[in-house]
Structure to design on (392 residues):
């Protein structure tokens, strides 16, 4: 048995767990991260790529801005394509803010490099991870690593182990209330060796279904098509994907750059919130507590917002013996989380084709888009939520 002790035991090395370890380290609070997968796996997991204004600022103010500012790109606005008409939403003009396009796996790489350099321990490839005694002030984590059993004693356990992790499932039976919505569609996403066909994103509402044009670099495009939630990839040979993208993204003066597709996958879409996010000394953050559909690019951002709140609460507790912010962690997070759930649900409802919609629902969707895109109040609403609400 390997036995260790730290102040904060963090389960999961996704953006939530890694950023929490980073923020705690900045304030001199020791933590250890316990992760089920390998470093290579977590550093190459393909996810979304938009950082809200304040999340990018947090990266910069905590010493993680250099690669983001050189490899990532600043987006001052975005585009909505409805009925073949392109509407530009100018975030900068509407809110004074912008977003950064920088892949989630790059954020993960930056965090891991910085933590390891600072000497923060990340226990990759830990199996049979379990959390214990969090109803007391002496919680601990057990795991198996390289065939040997390990135990980590700590003061607080942070459950940052994603939607399928063990921490939420370890809450006392009956404590959690779940709020859940599954959507009757998914996104088929590709990465392709093709220069982006537009300098900013295009969210397209088309009668065949939603499409999104995004990018990763001057040579790599990221594109999505609304599909069935369990769409078999065999239905979508590369030629069919390009043809359908060209149809859904078509508008005056636009031509779609195509190229070799080197990654293809389907993601189902759901909205989910678990309440409360804490029990005793076990606190959840990120996907472990809530999921959003990807339409507003909020998954990573909401995970970072949780751990920014959690880090402050832990600092108050560990450095000033003030348990108040920790005791209110759930309610502080949930207020912001429900705003993000509402925005992601709303964007999803507004932009997708719903097969169960009757003619009235379809007209409501059109009227909503008409208002949002053509009124200045509507545009501000969209822009303010997209660039991100304040982190606290
Ligand atoms: N023990 C240890 N680690 C675990 C366990 C476990 N039992 N179960 C899961 N994990 C790890 C996963 O391997 C993963 O690396 O926890 C990590 C959780 O990371 P994410 O799923 O990335 O979740 P989070 O950090 O909350 O980030 C949210 O990720 O899913 C996207 O769209 C979402 O962008 C958002 C972001
Ligand atoms: C992405 O680039 O992967 C992306 C961008 C915006 C979204 C979702 C995904 O809303």
């Amino acid at each position: 048995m390997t036995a260790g002790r730290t102040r904060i035991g963090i389960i999961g090395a996704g953006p939530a767990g890694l950023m929490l370890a980073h923020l705690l380290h900045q304030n001199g609070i020791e933590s250890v991260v316990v992760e089920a997968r390998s470093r290579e796996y977590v550093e190459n997991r393909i996810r979304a790529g938009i950082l809200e204004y304040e999340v990018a600022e947090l990266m910069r103010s905590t010493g993680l801005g250099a690669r983001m500012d050189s490899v990532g790109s600043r987006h001052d606005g975005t585009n909505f394509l409805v009925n073949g008409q392109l509407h530009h939403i100018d975030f900068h003009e509407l809110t004074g803010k912008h977003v950064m396009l920088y892949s989630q796996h790059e954020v993960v790489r930056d965090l891991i490099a910085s933590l390891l350099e600072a000497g923060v321990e990340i226990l990759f490839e830990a199996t049979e991870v379990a959390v214990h005694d969090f109803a007391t002030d002496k919680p601990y984590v057990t795991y198996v690593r390289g065939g040997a059993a390990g135990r980590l004693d700590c003061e607080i356990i942070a459950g940052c182990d994603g939607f399928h992790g063990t921490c939420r499932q370890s809450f006392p039976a009956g404590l959690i209330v779940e709020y859940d919505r599954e959507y009757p569609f998914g996104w088929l996403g590709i990465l392709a060796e093709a220069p982006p066909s537009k300098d900013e994103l295009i969210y397209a509402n088309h009668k065949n279904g939603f499409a999104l044009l995004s990018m990763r670099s001057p040579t790599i495009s990221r594109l999505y098509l609304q599909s069935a939630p369990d769409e078999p990839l065999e239905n979508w040979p590369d030629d069919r994907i390009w043809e359908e993208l060209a149809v859904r993204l078509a508008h005056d003066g636009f031509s779609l750059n195509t190229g070799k597709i080197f990654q293809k996958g389907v993601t189902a879409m759901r909205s989910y919130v678990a309440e409360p996010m804490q029990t005793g000394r076990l606190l959840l953050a990120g996907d472990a507590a809530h999921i959003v559909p990807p339409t507003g690019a909020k998954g990573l951002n909401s995970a970072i917002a949780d751990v920014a709140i959690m880090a402050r609460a832990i600092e108050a507790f560990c450095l000033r013996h003030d348990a108040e912010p920790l005791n209110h962690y759930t309610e502080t997070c949930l207020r912001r989380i429900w705003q993000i759930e509402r925005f992601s649900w709303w964007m999803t409802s507004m932009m997708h084709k719903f097969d169960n919609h009757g003619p009235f629902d379809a007209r409501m969707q059109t009227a909503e888009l008409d208002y949002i895109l053509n009124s200045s109040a509507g545009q501000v609403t969209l822009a303010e939520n997209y660039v991100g609400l304040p982190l606290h």
About this structure: Residues 53 and 99 are 5 Å apart (CA to CA). The longest helix spans residues 329-351. The radius of gyration is 21 Å. Residues 11-17, 34-37, 42, 47-48, 104, 129, 160-162, 165-166, 286-288, 299-300, 303 surround adenosine-5-diphosphoribose (ligand 1) (CB under 6 Å).
